[in-house]
Amino acid sequence: MDIVPYLEKKKQAIDSMLEQIVPGEAEFPPRLHQAMRYALLARGKRLRPILALAAAEAVGGDPAAILKEACALELIHTYSLIHDDLPAMDNDAVRRGMPTTHTVFGEALAILAGDALLTEAFVILSGCLNSCSNPQPTIEIIKLIAEAAGSRGLIGGQVVDLESEGKDIDEHLLEYIHSHKTGCLITASILLGATLAGGSPEQLSRLRDYGSAVGLAFQITDDILDVTESTQTLGKTAGSDQKKKKATYPALYGIEEARRRQHALYATALAALQPFDEKADALRQIARYIIERTA
Ligand code: IPE
Ligand code: IPE
Ligand code: MG
Ligand code: MG
Ligand code: MG
Question: Which of 80, 185, 268, 284 has the fewest CB neighbours in a 10 Å radius?
């Protein structure tokens, strides 16, 4: 299968759902809703919802049936980007090819738009409780996503990322940062899709292993691209990590070793999918895309 048209088709479905599920620009208070939409509807890869849809397919489910829940993941991811770019965090001026939310709307509104996107995601996820005959999988995924976004997940990773700036940290702490700030939400996205589509405990366990591998690999790629690509290609400021003396894979190991680790994680991800049939081919291709992408 060719993954490029697959990703493009899914992205279109996601973009059109995102457009509908957040309040319109005119809704009161308009500046808040403009800020939320500015960050959310900008050019993003939509990888987390795409992984949820592909995981639903891998266990034999209908991805269209979980599109709304998959889109809730993009609201959480976008909130994390708005806050990540704030002056108190990475202090970045460009995101998704545009000025960052705080540079356009001010810091206060950027913080609050992030808060609102995170909260709105749970409104969307819990809203699905009314429309399904069996609420149990929805309850499970709400817990799963909340944990992945919390202090034992994404936030924990972000805190240690900031605490580690300018320090020599060991490989275990570096892996903690990357697998938490980025890996947890990616793994939870895959499990969201598979859980809502009725995956078996054995399938979920294998998909968790796949998620841990591609989640870490995704952040290693992000680190490498920060060194090798331009601001123009990335749509965010290149060289930002070195400037802030961030703990990254290229900084600790060098680019070649970082690439070697990506390939090892790719092999782990494929091995986890071994018992799955061709319905998991999109997940297989996405694992490759994650280590080969250039933006
Ligand atoms: C960037 O995420 C932040 C990380 C967690 C590495 P993406 O590379 O998925 O950014 P978008 O959503 O495509 O803008
Ligand atoms: C961000 O990691 C992780 C989250 C937003 C949770 P980075 O700080 O490396 O992401 P970029 O490079 O700014 O997109
Ligand atoms: Mg950061
Ligand atoms: Mg950053
Ligand atoms: Mg980065």
Answer: 268
Range of the domain at 267: 3-292
Task: Of 3, 39, 4, 71, give the one whose Cα is nearest residue 236.
Answer: 39
Tell me: the pLDDT tens digits for 221-280?
Answer: 999 999 999 999 999 999 999 999 999 999 999 999 999 999 999 999 999 999 999 999
Q: What's the structural domain count of the chain?
A: 1
197 Cα to the center of ligand 4, angstroms: 33
Using CB distances shorter than 6 Å, the residues near ligand 1 are 44-45, 47, 77, 96, 182, 219, 222
Cα(188) to centroid(ligand 2), Å: 17
Atom of ligand 2 nearest to the CA of 248: 9
pLDDT tens digits along 22-44: 999 999 999 999 999 999 999 99
Question: Ligand 2: which of 76, 85, 90 to mutate, most ligand atoms within 8 Å of CB?
Answer: 90
* Helical H segments across the chain, by residue range: 3-21, 30-40, 47-58, 67-84, 101-105, 107-131, 136-149, 154-163, 171-178, 184-196, 201-228, 231-234, 240-243, 249-253, 255-272, 281-292
Write the CATH number for 226. Answer: 1.10.600.10
**Distance in Å, CA 123 to ligand 1 centroid:** 23
Counting Cα atoms < 13 Å in the Cβ hemisphere of 264 gives 8
Write down the pLDDT at residue 292: 97
